[in-house]
Write a structure and sequence with these properties.
With 709 residues, the chain is an alpha/beta fold. It has 16 helices and 31 strands. The strands form eight sheets. Strands 12-13-16-19-20-21-22-23 form an eight-stranded parallel β-barrel. The longest helix has 20 residues. 51% of the residues are buried.
């Protein structure tokens, strides 16, 4: 007979100490809990957990160690009208599991807590007694030991030197033939020399990984022959997604993930995780029971105040986790600290972050979640990025997060796109280009609070953005009704791919315009993986369920793709070499007694922009002077920081235009260093004097710097 000791209520989860394993599960309203152990044949051993302290059910099992498969059954009232959905027939995932083996086999057993009945909308009111264990994944006891070597010296790039690259662990490496075949699409593949060499040569300083918390795909996707590719359907907030592991799913995935982080750090690349604490994979009241619903539905989820059977849904996915609940807030904080302290990640991007900062209902920048993050000695020191919106009323909160948060700046994306496609004037564009002071300056944040992007995983790729006027999402199986409808014409004359060389060149130039603007704007740039080589999804702007070559990065590069990659690398190098493009303070704008101002916007005639120019929707050509001698910042030794000065000429018009450079007080001699019309132009091949005329091609951008010789 197995020995069962009392154990300890903390830490939560399964903790191996070298002799045995302590198991602890928070289940405040449960009446009974069973720990379920599984052997290699799938046979189940149930152990009644008799000890409960501080609402944590706990026991210690001598001789149980790494590799042991387990889950829980939790017993109590099944009363959906009261928000309680306990069902001991359903095997449940430990919310604190550090590794999870596999996914749900939807055909093996019923994982719904009720008998499904399409004809009965109230079917969930009666509990189902079918055992879900044959369909459910197993949790895994793991060994936390890992040789980090000297990884305590992490890259820790300042925000001003950060260039983020948003990628999917599988999609980035799956088709890369320079990576060993068995490693493609895995953590180990991302840690390979070929993958890291590419990132380093491009100039990337941080990778932002689409969700790697263990997630579960939806049954309706399985019915369509599809799967949840992006992974915004978390169920294990401590466990690396097992399908991305090349070495195994019995705890090896954790070591492989740590090895990936270690390898990226050794190359000077930080690791930021896209995390989804706003909802889980369990869906609405008709969704599956995988863990949280059966452990403590009322503790984990926001329920309708007047109808506890149904869920408040700020996310569009069926449920919302409740960060005002002490159990949920503890879960989130424990999870975040675990990834930083045990897995050495460098920061987080929070999906639909406004959901987490809603108190009773509305967004609150003084919410418990934001307060506890801000005072935490570990988490307040890592990179924190909010997606500052959700789908509920009052959910659009760009500029609303407090220090030390940075934010995905959706207004930057929209303004930059609109300017270059000729559908807005210069005022909004200039505000976003200079760091969005209207959003971040009043509360003491800097331009570095703005994470700028043109494209992200959700939407068109950069190539598709300038190629397609409408979405082409038929492959998703929803009659092209999913995904955003807002792209609007790029005035290229043809929708979709074309053999017309003039249109192809215009589209290529627009891509260069957008990526150049992004990488030379104030703030922190984020590039979508593959945009630098012209990746296409054939017009699909919602490829969340496309785990195939439509979404994976294609590494068979033609000459145009290689040229674009060189151009992007040149831009990143320019940005990182010159602090004037990555200031830590907002521009003052006004001239002082010691010469030119820190920034000066001018018209094509070389004269200062007027208020009328700024407010006109017809102003689509303008220049800007960036004063490298007046950064208003100091280096590490406290010395004034100085840089070269630059002039940038933007022409979003459909025709070529002639610019006059500013007068000699801004600079007597200039040289051309970058052209989106002629990306291979030799730096310094063209030189100009003050007030010289400079021809700027239709829909193109030039960058000049002060000539010193």
């Amino acid at each position: 007979m197995r020995r069962v000791w009392r154990g300890q209520p903390f830490p939560l989860g399964a903790t191996w100490d070298g002799d045995g394993t302590n198991f602890s599960l928070y289940a405040a309203e449960a009446e009974a809990v069973e720990l379920c152990l599984f052997d290699e044949t799938g046979a189940e051993e149930r152990i009644r957990v008799s000890e409960c302290s501080l609402h944590n059910w706990h026991c210690y099992l001598p001789g149980v160690g790494p590799g042991q498969l387990y889950g829980y059954r939790v017993f109590g009232r099944y009363s959906p009208q009261d928000g309680q959905r306990f069902n001991g027939a359903k095997l449940l995932i430990d919310p604190y599991a550090k590794a999870i083996d596999g996914g749900v086999d939807w055909s093996a057993a019923n994982v719904l807590p009720y008998v499904p009945d399409a004809e009965n909308p109230d079917a969930d009111l009666e509990a189902d007694d079918e055992d879900s264990a044959p369909a459910m994944p197993r949790c895994v006891v793991i060994d936390e030991q890992f040789d980090w070597g000297d990884d305590d010296r992490r890259p820790q790039h300042d925000w001003s030197r950060t260039v983020i690259y948003e990628l999917h662990v599988k999609g980035f490496t799956k088709l890369n033939e320079r990576i060993r075949e068995d490693l493609r699409g895995t953590y180990a593949g991302l840690a390979s020399d070929a993958a890291i060499e590419y990132l380093r040569e491009l100039g990337i300083t941080a990778v932002e990984l689409l969700p790697v918390h263990h997630f579960i795909g939806e049954s309706f996707l399985v019915d369509r022959g599809l799967t949840n590719y992006w992974g915004y359907s978390s169920i294990g907030y401590f466990a690396p997604h097992s399908a991305y592991a090349a070495t195994g799913e019995r705890g090896q995935q954790l070591d492989e993930f740590k090895g990936m982080v270690k390898a990226l750090h050794a190359a000077g690349i930080e690791v930021i995780l896209d995390v989804v604490y706003n909802h889980t994979a369990e869906g609405n009241h008709l969704g599956p029971m995988l863990g949280f619903k059966g452990i403590g539905n009322r503790a984990y989820y926001r329920l309708m105040p007047d109808d506890a059977r149904h869920y408040l849904d700020f996310t569009g996915t069926g449920n919302s986790l409740d960060p005002t609940s002490p159990a949920v807030l503890r879960l989130i904080m424990d999870s975040l600290r675990y990834w930083v302290t045990h897995c050495h990640v460098d920061g987080f991007r929070f999906d639909l972050a406004t959901v987490l900062a809603r108190e009773n209902y509305d967004f609150d920048r003084r919410s418990g979640f934001l307060d506890v993050i801000g005072q935490d000695p570990v988490l307040s020191q890592v990179k924190l990025i909010a997606e500052p919106w959700d789908v509920a009323p009052g959910g659009y909160q760009i500029g609303g997060f407090p220090s030390p948060w940075a934010e995905w700046n959706g207004r930057y994306r929209d303004a930059t796109r609109d300017f270059w496609r000729g559908q807005s004037g210069a005022g909004e564009f200039a505000s976003r280009f200079t760091g969005s002071s209207d959003l971040y300056e009043d509360d003491g944040r800097s331009p570095l609070a703005s994470v700028n992007f043109i494209c992200a995983h959700d939407g068109f790729t950069l190539r598709d953005l300038v190629t397609y006027d409408v979405k082409h999402n038929a492959a998703n199986g929803e009659d092209n009704s999913d995904g955003s409808d807002d792209n609007r014409s790029w005035n290229c004359g043809v929708e979709g791919p074309t053999d017309d060389p003039a249109i192809a060149e215009l589209r290529s130039r627009q891509r260069r315009n957008l990526i150049a603007t992004l990488l030379l704007s104030q703030g922190v740039p984020m590039i979508l993986a593959g945009d630098e080589i012209g990746r296409t999804q054939l017009g699909n702007n919602n490829a969340w369920c496309q785990d195939n070559e439509l979404s994976w990065v294609d590494w068979q590069l033609d000459g145009d793709s290689q040229a674009l990659r060189r151009f992007v690398g040149q831009l990143i190098g320019l940005r990182l070499s010159h602090p004037v493009f990555r200031r830590t303070r907002f521009f003052a704008g006004s001239a002082s007694g010691d010469g030119a101002p820190d920034i000066w916007w001018f018209r094509p005639d070389g004269r200062r922009m007027t208020q009328r120019d700024w407010h006109s929707e017809d102003t689509r050509a303008l220049g800007v002077f960036l004063n490298g001698a007046k950064l208003g910042e100091s280096d590490d030794r406290g010395e004034p920081l100085k840089d070269t000065s630059f002039a940038m000429l933007f022409n979003a018009l459909h025709e070529d235009i002639e610019f006059r450079l500013p007068n000699a007080s801004f600079g007597k001699a200039w040289k051309l260093i970058l052209s989106t019309e002629r990306p291979d132009l030799e730096v310094g091949a063209l030189r100009y004097a003050a007030r010289d005329a400079v021809s700027v091609c239709a829909r193109s951008l030039l960058v000049l710097d002060l000539a010193t010789a």
